[in-house]
Design goal:
The structure is a homodimer.
Chain A lengths: L22 H8 L3 H9 L6 H14 L5 H8 L4 E6 L5 H16 L3 E6 L4 H12 L5 E5 L5 H10 L3 E5 L9 E3 L2 H14 L5 E5 L4 H16 L7 E4 L6 H14 L5 E4 L2 H14 L8 E3 L16 E3 L2 H16 L8 E3 L3 E3 L5
Parallel strand pairs in A: 1-2, 1-3, 3-4, 4-5, 5-11, 6-7, 6-8, 8-9
Antiparallel strand pairs in A: 10-12
Helix pairs in contact in A: 1-2, 1-3, 2-3, 5-12, 6-7, 8-9, 10-11
The structure holds a DNA duplex.
DNA sequence: CTGAAAGCGCTTACAG
DNA sequence: CTGAAAGCGCTTACAG
């Protein structure tokens, strides 16, 4: 029927000027109304099985892809999940992102990353700009936020899961592990192996670092060594080079120290390498323990004793929990403890 | 005037049911038309200075934030920039992302990250799904893409900048450095320091790794040592542990090797640590050079000689170039060579 | 330099 | 179980 092309009142296949295949095109091809297509596609309510099939066939034939912007505008909810992390230079958060990414995109969500630089003001600003995008969900690192940030989250009504730390607050949601308990456990390991002068060395003083320090203090106190608590804090960002410097400082300022618990593996790795350069025997002269079991810790000389933390699994589980919340499904366990593991290697 | 609240025909401040402050609200408050507000906000065309001021005052007073979804739907262009990288586990790409992130969000764009896992099929799938979001711009890692992927980019009409490698193709845009030349230069450094049996060890065989290998070959050939080319390739992902294994393999299978150029610092770092464990003297017995100057390379024992690559600057410059393209501005230098730097340390 | 009209491509109540 | 109407909040031509 080539004449059809010439017939002015023949219904055009593409209603719009953009050339884009729209939901209306699918509806026409399937012989149903646009609403039915919309419902069939989203699996909402009951649509007759045969109609669903016709719709799916039309979608496949036309290569229809829904327009996220139109969807977001009409439903006032986008397919974005905003994820706020402190820094991209910390491997722990990158691995968290990686896991979140996989889970979220597999479910059709887009991840929007916000980097707060460990700054409450920045966190608030980033969150505010993200909220304008009407995200379907929110992943926040940690539990501590400024009042303004908390109010923004609350007021937005956007489902939110806090990760890395564990909350107990009713109504909120979290996936993580007890940083305090992990700090206590690794300190206990040092004490169990006979160390008597254990120092806690920390950089980048975020809440989790401080919680690990609390665990350290608790372990010493439980062992009746409360007066031996010795913490070295640096406000600088964590790095291998800093770890080496802090080791040197501890050796000089507190030469009786026989073990160091570093708040992060990068510091501990740096300390191990510095010890090598300085000729300081590990673990004989001083035992070294880290935190997070980062890439490379198993390759150190000697291999680094540390705490393996489940950031990959945290990402997976947080994504699951958030998706349940976004669908309005109930969450049986709003605060999920994924635990940690002491990894005993040769350094301590 | 409390009676105003009771007057049925009093103009409501908020026209919509959502409670959201809209452009129409701003227009009303400023006493201009919505189009004028739209133009004033985007800095488009000439709007009388006093009107712009009135609009800005109204925006500030009402706390107006434009709706990205509405904007995207009306303009058929979102405020997203899609960034495709091979892996999140490679620090190089994380640092690239970090730089892109800062530049892009500062300019009001949202970064959408796609991870291709070094897989052409995955790259195509990710790109296809991103294109449905009608991104304003595109950042692609590398120059080599499947024909389907290339066609998708071309057909979408979305401005695209390729990063890490350097193209020469007219019409395309790239920011990076010559991987081949960098591979040549570090190999030359090894030759210059008297090494005569240099092996190239590579994992995760992506195009850039292969280009570095070409540079390695070129250097040997230029030195009249073309017959001494020896490359060890592993298809496994790059890691410190793998670096140690590959060092052992080279020492066993080609004991006359007096220098290794590793395609990435994580391999080289692992090799250095393995050498320490094995009692293999570096650089006396064997010189070790890496690539990328990753965090920790300066802390190794001995410190690692490597090639510093400008991924941060690549991110910054690529963002600049893309923003020019997105605004339709001309780009004076479509292929930007940011160079590299040989970092001489003790390992080679 | 400014505006009235139409439309972007969906979904949300409201009916039936 | 299905649909007609209205609307989400912007911008794009088209005028003047």
């Amino acid at each position: 029927m080539p004449s059809r092309k010439l017939t002015t009142n023949a219904a055009p296949r593409r209603t719009r000027a953009t050339g884009r295949v729209t939901l209306a095109d699918v509806a026409q091809a399937a012989g149903v109304s646009p609403i039915t297509v919309s419902r069939a596609l989203r699996g909402e309510r009951a649509v007759a099985a045969d109609l669903v099939e016709r719709v799916q066939a039309a979608v496949a034939e036309l290569g229809y892809v829904p327009d996220p912007a139109a969807r977001a505008l009409a439903s006032s909810r986008s397919s974005h999940v905003a994820v706020l992390i402190p820094k991209l230079s910390n491997t722990v958060f990158v691995e968290l992102l990686d896991a979140l990414q996989r889970s979220l995109t597999a479910a059709g969500y887009q991840m929007l990353i916000g980097v707060t630089q460990y700054d409450a003001r920045e966190e608030e600003a980033v969150l505010r700009s993200f909220l304008a995008h009407r995200p379907a969900g929110l992943i926040m690192t940690g539990l501590e936020h400024s009042p303004a940030t908390a109010a923004l989250i609350e007021g937005s009504g956007v489902p939110c899961v806090h990760v890395m730390e564990l909350s107990a607050e009713p109504g909120s949601h979290s996936v993580g592990f007890s940083q305090r308990e992990a700090g206590r456990a690794i300190t206990q390991h040092l004490l169990d192996s006979g160390r008597r002068h254990v120092t806690y060395v920390a950089a980048q003083l975020d809440p989790r670092t401080l919680q690990r320090g609390e665990g350290y203090v608790a372990a010493l106190q439980a062992a009746g060594m409360g007066e031996r608590v010795r913490q070295v804090h640096s406000a600088e960002p964590s790095s291998m080079a800093l770890g080496g410097q802090l080791l040197a400082r501890v050796l000089k300022e507190a030469p009786d120290t026989d073990a160091i618990f570093f708040c992060n593996d990068d510091l501990a790795q740096g300390a191990l390498l510095a010890a090598l350069r300085l000729g300081v025997k590990v673990p004989e002269r001083i035992a070294v323990a880290g935190f997070n079991n980062l890439p490379g810790s198993d390759q150190m000389v000697p291999p680094l004793t540390t705490v393996a933390t489940p950031r990959g699994e945290i990402g997976v589980q947080a994504a699951q929990m958030l998706m349940a919340l976004m669908r309005g499904q109930p969450v049986e366990q709003p605060h999920l403890d994924l635990g940690f593991q002491i990894v005993r290697r040769a350094s301590a």
